[in-house]
Amino acid sequence: MITNEQLLLLEKYLKESNNIVFFGGAGVSTESGIPDFRSKDGLYNNMGVDFSKYKPEYLLSFACLYHEPDVFFEFYRQKMNTRNYKPNITHNVLAKLEEIGKLSAIVTQNIDGLHQKAGSKNVYEIHGTTSVCHCMNCGREYDGNYIFDCDENIPHCQYCGDEDAIIRPNVVLYGENLPEYTVSKAISAIEKADSLIIGGTSLTVWPANTFLSYFKSNHLIIINNEPLDVPVNERTDLIITDKLGNIFTKIDEMFKE
Q1: Ramachandran region of residue 169, left (φ > 0), alpha (ψ -120 to 50) or beta?
Q2: Using one digit for the tens of pLDDT, what is the confidence trace for 148-205?
Q3: What single-letter DSSP state applies at residue 206?
Q4: How far is CA 172 from CA 43, 214, 238, 248, in A?
Q5: Structure confidence at residue 234 as a pLDDT band (50, 70, 90)
Q6: Which PROSITE patterns match (predicted)?
Q7: What is the biggest distance separating any 2 CA atoms in the chain, rounded to whole angstroms?
Q8: CA 49 to CA 215: how far, in whole Å?
């Protein structure tokens, strides 16, 4: 729970900053109802009997897509369909901060597209997105709905006419590298930021957990619902253990006209 002293510091830091970057993880979207991966209520602990013989990392890997595409797409459709979820207070306040010129960028580990639904423009999705997919043969892009709405269990390209031309999501799978261009832009934004807010992430996933090392400026603020199990940067100004929704409700009040 945030203390009055922490709240005053948070308001001071945010109001004197004009180039804030927000780095977010799964905890940003759990309050919209989207499960995270590793908590007791998360995806990895609620696989269901259909996938109980598989390791969760395998089901979201390039190896599974390549060797067992029928299994990959069955799991993807059941567990990764976030189309009906809506942005929560955190997404909405971040969009507001961008609109009023306080926030310059969002770097997110999430693939659900809720920041864009809330109205954020400058979003770097370092793990990709479910909102776009593409043909592995010709590279043609499709709307992300194609995989979920396609009549085929394994979606194929309508233009290639090749049974090997599979449509895959623009999501970074296990065994794949992060997108270089997006990572480069995200790092550049963090390097230029005057304040960095880390929210809803345990800082345990490599290489995303190394991103905060690029921040060189004034205020490093960490907000997480659970105490962190890893050491944080010695320059961290503020660590708040509370729900993001509670904190961003208070941030919204700070910037009421």
Answers
A1: beta
A2: 999 999 999 999 978 789 999 999 999 999 999 999 999 999 999 999 999 998 777 6
A3: T
A4: 17, 22, 31, 29
A5: low
A6: SIRTUIN
A7: 63
A8: 43
In the chain, the N- to C-terminal Cα span, in Å, equals 26
C-beta of residue 142 within 8 angstroms of C-beta of residue 135? yes
Which of 91, 115, 127, 219 is catalytic? The answer is 127
Q: Which residues are annotated as a binding site for Zn(2+)?
A: 135, 138, 157, 160
Q: Is 195 exposed, middle or buried (0-12, 13-18, 19+ CB in 10 A)?
A: buried
Say what angle helices 4-15 and 244-254 make with each other, to 10 degrees. 60
1-33+87-127+175-257 has CATH 3.40.50.1220 classification: yes
Q: Is 127 one of the annotated active-site residues of the chain?
A: yes
Q: Which residue has the higher pLDDT, 246 or 53?
A: 246
The pLDDT value recorded for residue 210 is 85
Ranges of each domain in the chain: 1-33+87-127+175-257, 35-81, 130-171
